[in-house]
Amino acid sequence: MNFKITPQEEPQLNLTPLIDVVFLLLIFFMVSTTFDKQAELSIDLPEADGKPVKVDKVFKIEIAIDSQGHYFVNQRRLKQDNLKNLKRAIEITKAANKKIQVVISSDKNTPYQAFITAMDAAKQLGLEHVNLATRQAKN
């Protein structure tokens, strides 16, 4: 008896469902990731005792000052660190908003003059609601 041997195909693993699952996981992790607002600018805020105050919904302008005295208005770095440029950046940012709250976040090692310049710019533009950002003191 002569048996004919037929070549058998090698088993194949279908990777299509695996790739679909990997892409779905990738999309899930991208959507569910939270980003830290202060990740780009490293500011070591001074500490203060007290409770945070609830703030009404108003337009916020955040002025951040790093330890070298460089200004950032709503996370955008100013080209030159002087009063004229700071006032212009605030005016452009506030646009036509009437209720404006200014929050000044400065590093605890910021030169005092840079901090005073930021407060002076807000006062010269007639902005009355100026707050200073701090972090909660550790007991």
- Give the amount of beta strand, in percent: 15-25%
| Number of DSSP helical runs | 3
Shape descriptor: elongated
Distance linking N and C termini: 93 Å
Overall mean confidence score, pLDDT: 82
Question: Biggest sheet, strands in spatial order?
Answer: 4-3-2-5-6
Order of helices and strands: HEEEEHEHEE
Report a brief summary of the structure:
The chain is of the alpha/beta class.
Can you offer a commentary on this structure?
The chain has 139 residues and is of the alpha/beta class. The chain has a domain at 47-136: 2-Layer Sandwich (Nucleotidyltransferase, domain 5). 30% of the residues lie in helices and 19% in strands. It is built from 3 helices and 7 strands; from the N terminus they run αββββαβαββ. The protein has helices at 16-32, 83-94, 112-124, and strands at 47-48, 59-65, 71-73, 76-77, 100-106, 129-132, 135-136. The strands form 2 sheets. Strands 4-3-2-5-6 form a 5-stranded mixed sheet, covered by helices on one side. Strands 1-7 form a two-stranded parallel sheet. Helix 3 links the parallel strand 5 and strand 6. Helix 2 (83-94) crosses helix 3 (112-124). It is elongated, with a radius of gyration of 28 Å.
